[in-house]
């Protein structure tokens, strides 16, 4: 044998294919999880002139393979799925009369590109599936074949992306709620428990300090549910965040509430509104003004001695319209008497706010918790230790709903004046 001759056996051993696979694998990492290139799988195309038996053998040797691209005149024109290949050779007569791969190929005229975004391409892919029952699609990168993607891969990835987006949005929404540092600075005790019916919700609460002794404690319930309602919570939260950065020249609680209503009227869609329970607390004067803007009733509980068997309970009904309708300022001006409840603060007094998801929650038998149970609950909660407030609320909700789903977001707030 001539020592000057070198034979490259890799041409026959498929190194070209291995290099191509490596190239596709490396290229896949350059696409974001929202692009088709991230979900397409590379499968070596078969020639249109290959026998269907060749395709059947490929499926036989690879249990994870569901479709094979078919190449005609050096371009992938469609696919053969596992079911089609099996049906084409499931009898002796069919095997005897078997034709070339192109005769069993599902041609796909629509071109998908690896850089296309999954969500924007889903409608096109879904329409093709409904019209032609095609479920596997060739994907190209520029003019080169890149891989195969299935309708199921589209749906699975979109579900994953949306779940991730909801998780991020939920974290952002929770981040707007008052943190422990804010709560610790209050001259009274504040406890809040919140549970959303979905990943995102329309219940929020806020604490805004006007001074060291004055603060607003607010509980809001947005009309609607899930994503739409959660977007409106951003509007409310943004209002208070702006106040923190740019405090008004006159830190007047009446003007703040009226301005919030005017602001929401401009930013929320027609037909939406926000109910609110707002407490303006002034510990220096020992007073609290309570504004019920179309919200659930507000409870004030008081015992002169914490351990006394009997005490007083006041129920504050809605006296103002919901926020976002632009009616608060005129409601303030129209009343000869104050359109809110003004109460003196006492030691051992509790003020309880909640959203209607608490009274509307149902058990396995479809029985509502209702207003009577809510009142009984707050009477019971009055005697609970500070450290047990949130756990008591959680236990009450969990034990009542049992295995049922909650129909609406739930927020319960307990304000205590020691």
Write the layout of secondary structure elements.
Elements: H1 10-13, H2 15-28, E1 46-47, H3 52-61, E2 67-72, E3 75-81, H4 82-88, H5 92-96, E4 106-107, E5 112-113, H6 118-132, E6 136-141, E7 144-150, H7 151-175, H8 180-184, E8 189-195, E9 203-209, E10 214-222, H9 226-245, H10 253-267, E11 274-282, E12 287-293, E13 298-302, E14 312-316, H11 328-334, E15 341-344, E16 349-354, H12 356-360, H13 370-382, H14 389-401, E17 410-417
Parallel strand pairs: 1-2, 5-6
Antiparallel strand pairs: 2-3, 3-4, 6-7, 8-17, 9-10, 10-11, 11-12, 12-15, 13-14, 13-16, 16-17
Helix pairs in contact: 3-4, 6-7
Mean pLDDT: 90
Query: How large, in whole angstroms, is the Cα Rg?
Result: 33 Å
Helix residue percentage: 25-40%
Oligomer kind: single chain
CA-CA gap between termini: 102 Å
Strand content: 15-25%
Strand order of the largest sheet: 8-17-16-13-14
Which regions are unreliable across 5 or more consecutive residues at pLDDT < 50?
A: 6-17
Main sheet properties:
5 strands, antiparallel
Which structural class should the secondary elements be placed in? alpha+beta
Secondary structure tally, helices: 14
Q: What is the general shape?
A: elongated
Number of strands: 17
């Amino acid at each position: 044998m001539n020592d000057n001759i070198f034979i490259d056996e890799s041409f026959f051993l498929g190194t070209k294919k291995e290099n191509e696979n490596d190239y596709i694998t490396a290229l896949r990492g350059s696409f974001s999880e929202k692009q088709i290139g991230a979900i397409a799988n590379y499968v070596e195309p078969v020639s249109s002139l290959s026998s269907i038996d060749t395709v059947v053998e490929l499926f036989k040797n690879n249990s994870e393979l569901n479709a094979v691209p078919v190449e005609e005149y050096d371009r992938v024109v469609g696919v053969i799925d596992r079911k089609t290949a099996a049906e084409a050779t499931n009898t002796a007569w069919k095997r005897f009369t078997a034709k070339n791969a192109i005769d069993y190929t599902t041609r796909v005229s629509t071109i998908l590109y690896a850089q296309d975004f999954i969500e924007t391409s889903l409608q096109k892919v879904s329409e093709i599936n409904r019209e032609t029952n095609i479920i596997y699609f060739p994907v190209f990168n520029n003019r080169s074949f890149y891989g195969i993607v299935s309708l199921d891969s589209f749906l699975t990835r979109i579900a994953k992306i949306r779940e991730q987006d909801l998780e991020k949005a939920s974290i952002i929404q929770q981040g707007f709620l008052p943190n422990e540092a804010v709560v610790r600075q209050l001259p009274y005790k504040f406890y809040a428990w919140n549970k959303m019916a979905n990943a995102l919700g329309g219940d929020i609460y806020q604490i805004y300090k006007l001074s060291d002794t004055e603060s607003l404690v607010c509980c809001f319930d947005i009309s609607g549910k899930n994503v739409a309602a959660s977007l409106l919570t951003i509007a409310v939260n943004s209002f208070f965040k702006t106040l923190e950065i740019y405090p008004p020249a006159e830190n007047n609680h009446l003007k703040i509430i009226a301005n919030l209503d005017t602001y929401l009227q401009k930013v929320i869609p027609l037909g939406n509104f926000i109910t609110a329970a707002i407490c303006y607390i002034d510990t220096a004067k020992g007073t609290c003004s309570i504004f019920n803007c179309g919200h659930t009733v507000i409870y004030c509980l008081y015992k002169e001695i914490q351990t006394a068997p009997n005490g007083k309970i006041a129920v504050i009904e809605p006296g103002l319209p919901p926020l976002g309708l632009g009616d608060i300022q005129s409601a303030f001006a129209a009343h000869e008497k104050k359109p809110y409840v003004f109460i003196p603060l006492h030691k051992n007094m509790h003020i309880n706010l909640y959203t209607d998801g608490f009274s509307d929650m149902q058990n396995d038998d479809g029985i509502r918790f209702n207003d009577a149970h809510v009142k009984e609950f707050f009477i019971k909660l009055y005697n609970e230790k500070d450290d047990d407030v949130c756990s008591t609320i959680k236990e009450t909700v969990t034990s009542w709903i049992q295995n049922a789903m909650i129909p609406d977001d739930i927020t319960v707030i307990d304000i205590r004046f020691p």
